[in-house]
Amino acid sequence: MGADQVEVLFIGGRSGVGKSTVSAEVCVRLEAAGIAHVQLEGDFLGQVFPAPAGDPDRSRIVLDNLAAVWHNFAALGYRRLVYTNTVSVLYADELAEALDAPVKIVRVLLTASDEVANERLAARELGSGLDVHVARSARAAAWLDRDAPADVVRVGTDGRSVVDIAAEVVAATGWSALSNGDGLDREAVRPRRRMSFDGDASGYQRGRPPYPDAVFQLLADRCELRPGARVLEIGAGTGLATGPLLAAGAHVTAVEPGANLAEVLSAVHGCDRLHVVVADFETADLTGGHDLAVAATALHWLDPATSTEKIGKLVRPGGWLAAWWTEFGDRDRPTEFRDRLDEVYRDLLPGEPGYRQGRSHAFDTDRWRRQLTAGGWFGDVAVEVMTWQQTLTPQAARDLWSTFPNIAELDPDDRESFLSRLATIIEDLGGRVDDPRLTIVYTAARTPE
């Protein structure tokens, strides 16, 4: 994708087909894959009464609003858009023109039978509104089926899970590395991104900072981390969480798919209370009965459709699940270092949002509450955010950023340019900077049998 080119995924379909739900899951997958994007519900752009003068169908105000909104996102470096509206696939060319940039379009038409669409509408509509929506949905379905352009990708939704549908939609985009045909980030991105850590296990051990002591104090206070506790660690890496768990007296089964990472883990933390399993968690043959399962910067790599159930079966009733992530940089604590670093990102990784623009998937508390409570295996979800900072020297910064997949994936010249400019910023600021950190911890209680 060229620096100025915009890529747009238009998702259309009749009422009751599940456009908004599928769009949300598509964006979850793109986020997990590290693909910067914007999500817009087209209906919101024309919700005004009465219609503007001379614009009875509100099409002009929709285009004007889209142009204005996209201008703001484009100025921040975003180049991909997921746009959802019933008839968006019919008017994709006009909508794309409003973006005022070269545009690559992917149109996806979600389809559903009358029976399924009406059943879904009945579940969300009350009173006389149902009949109106059913009739409108049927008319839209016929119109879309008749007039959809030849390049539209039709995706059926009857009898399929949202996860499965979204996987097919993401595959249709061909965005980034999601090109192996199924579009599922855990299948297409995990071998490249998660396993990239295994390529330089010693560098990962050297570059990544430890987690705050407060994380493990929270596990002791809330999740019964104590001497003798049986802990299952998912995605242990080189042992940044394993060490403190062992220091608390726990017996740890550490599951790590990377052989090199597991080797460092065993070398640094090996003892009679540590059992290392070199395997993908989702296929590993594990014994249940654990008091606590933990995933430190790891849960997002797992399939949200199946992982909670597997964890639930491995944790005893009354036990606990804890998952946490560290956010590097904090929009609420702006620094000159981060502002200058954003300039480097804009030059070499223009699709990456700046640190002031928002926070990562880890802070999508609604998403993680849904995932952690899926299937009823866990409940009583609590969220804690810990604020701290890491002191960086030029070398420490190079070591840390070298572990980030988006930096590792740059071509060698661009990667060295990024790391050199990063180090130079710190040198210019006196050779040491305090870089804000946030660690967000989710804990959930295993439900009784």
TrEMBL record:
InterPro entries linked: Diverse_substrate_MTase (IPR051052), Methyltransf_11 (IPR013216), P-loop_NTPase (IPR027417), SAM-dependent_MTases_sf (IPR029063)
Short name of one Pfam family: Methyltransf_11
Gene Ontology molecular function: any one: S-adenosylmethionine-dependent methyltransferase activity
UniProt keyword annotation of Transferase present: yes
Domain of life assignment: Bacteria
Keyword Transferase: yes
Cleavable signal peptide: none
GO biological process, one term: methylation
SUPFAM superfamilies: P-loop containing nucleoside triphosphate hydrolases (SSF52540), S-adenosyl-L-methionine-dependent methyltransferases (SSF53335)
Family: Belongs to the methyltransferase superfamily.
Protein name, per record: Methyltransferase type 11 domain-containing protein
Protein source organism: Catellatospora coxensis
UniProt lineage: Bacteria, Bacillati, Actinomycetota, Actinomycetes, Micromonosporales
